[in-house]
Recover the amino acids of this structure.
């Protein structure tokens, strides 16, 4: 779950970084700074996933990324796509961790 979530957050950070380049000519300096801060925080939140509140922080960053849609309107659509990937990473990650735990438990029972 942590690996998939981190991959989604890093991909979001890179995507937002490229979107900032697109928005530089039309957006205000405040909006560009907001985008840079969100991109860096997305990257940092990928590292925070190993902590208990990491997934909550990552979920809050999803909202901050969709808010960038007010600067670059295409990010409303891109944000929804990344939220779907975020939810899928959590669901698939939990199933993968449960399967791994079952395999480890079965391996311990065999002498």
């Amino acid at each position: 779950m942590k690996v998939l979530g981190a991959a989604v957050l890093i991909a979001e950070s890179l995507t937002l970084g490229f979107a900032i380049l697109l928005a530089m000519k039309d957006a205000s300096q405040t909006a560009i700074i907001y985008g840079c801060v969100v991109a860096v925080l997305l990257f940092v939140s990928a590292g925070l996933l190993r902590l208990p509140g990491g997934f909550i922080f990552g979920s809050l960053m999803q909202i901050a990324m969709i808010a960038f849609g007010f600067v670059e309107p295409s990010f409303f659509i891109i944000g929804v796509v990344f939220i779907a990937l975020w939810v899928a990473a959590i669901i698939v990650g939990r199933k993968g961790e449960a399967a791994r735990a079952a395999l480890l438990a079965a391996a311990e029972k065999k002498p």
In short: The radius of gyration is 17 Å. Residues 81 and 92 are 16 Å apart (CA to CA). Residues 75-109 form the longest helix (35 residues). The chain has a mean pLDDT of 90.
